[in-house]
Design goal:
The chain is of the alpha+beta class. The chain is built from 11 helices and 12 strands. It starts with 9 loop residues before the first strand and ends with a helix. α9 (237-243) packs antiparallel against α10 and α10 packs antiparallel against α11.
Length: 297
């Protein structure tokens, strides 16, 4: 295989995952994989140092599909890492458990970027705006390394240090969370994004969640996640533990506010203070929980 004719950087076009990994091992840290290229474009605009070699995954057509897959006794939605966001939005319409993603996708970047950006790129940047929703949906990753493939949860992968061994993210898996498989009760799911103005700019903060309240009016399932341009996506585990098994009353929601304030540590930014972002996150989450509580009355 020879690289595509290019000035700089050099673009390599492997035709298999194994070939892509082989090229990456040969070229080392001064190279990177690329799919849609939108994140690299942003780095270029910000005058960041660009990789000397780009390894395009464009020819790996098996990673551009969305389908149901049975693994053991569980059903998963399998999404190839090279599925473009615009195609993902169209392809998910047949899958009822992806309502949260369908709500999130139109809010990601601009239409022009969604036409190029891939789900895998959104994940691999570790700053992608879909990550809070994927955390709430308990997404799993399948990665391919020179030594074999490995499944791991998105939550665990985000917590890990950068891997030394080269790898390609091949698929994401979403467990079947259709309503008939959830405990009887009322469920709400939400994705909320704030920015400095309505036109496309990077997000200040993104909050996503999924909450089920059972017939006894107590929380039986809860997932909360936060992310944003300058905040690595994370689950709000302390707040989830606080909510589980409790009723959605004034006392509980007051404790939720305190829990978020204590456990969330946003980074300082030129436009917003950490205290302001804490208030935004807490108010967005409590607002959604209040709506759910109102439905139960």
């Amino acid at each position: 295989m020879v690289p595509s004719i290019s000035s700089s950087p050099v673009v390599w076009q492997p035709e298999t995952i194994q070939e892509a990994l082989s090229v990456k091992e040969k070229l080392g840290h001064e190279s990177c994989f690329v799919a849609g290229g939108t994140y690299l474009q942003l780095q270029w605009i910000q005058n960041r140092v660009m990789p000397r070699d780009l390894i395009s995954l464009e020819k790996l057509n098996d990673l551009k599909k969305v389908k149901k897959r049975l693994r053991g006794q569980e059903t998963f939605l399998e999404i190839g890492s090279l599925v473009r966001l615009v195609d993902l939005q169209a392809g998910l319409s047949d899958f009822s458990e992806t309502k949260l993603l369908l709500e999130a996708l139109p809010q990601i970047a601009s239409p022009a970027i969604r036409n190029r950006a891939t789900l895998g790129g959104n994940v691999m940047s570790k700053k992608g705006e879909l990550l809070p929703a994927l955390l709430v949906l308990e997404a799993e990753l399948l990665i391919q390394t020179p030594s074999g493939s490995k499944h791991l949860t998105l939550h665990n992968w985000l917590d890990q240090a950068n891997r030394q061994e080269p790898f390609v993210l091949t698929h994401l898996y979403l467990p079947d969370m259709t309503m008939e498989k959830m405990e009887a009760g009322v469920t709400t799911a939400f994705f909320k994004k704030t920015a400095r103005r309505e036109a496309f700019v990077p997000s200040q903060v993104i909050v996503s969640g999924r909450c089920t309240v059972n017939v006894n009016h107590c929380v039986s399932h809860i997932r909360l996640a936060v992310g944003g341009t300058d905040h690595l996506p994370e689950r709000l585990l302390q707040t989830e533990d606080l909510l589980l098994g409790r009723p959605l009353n004034e006392e509980t929601l007051s404790k939720v506010y305190s829990s978020i304030w204590q456990s969330l540590h946003p980074l300082e930014s030129p436009f917003t203070s950490p205290q302001y972002l804490k208030k935004v996150v807490a108010n967005l989450i409590i607002g959604q929980l209040y709506e759910l509580a109102f439905k139960l009355k």
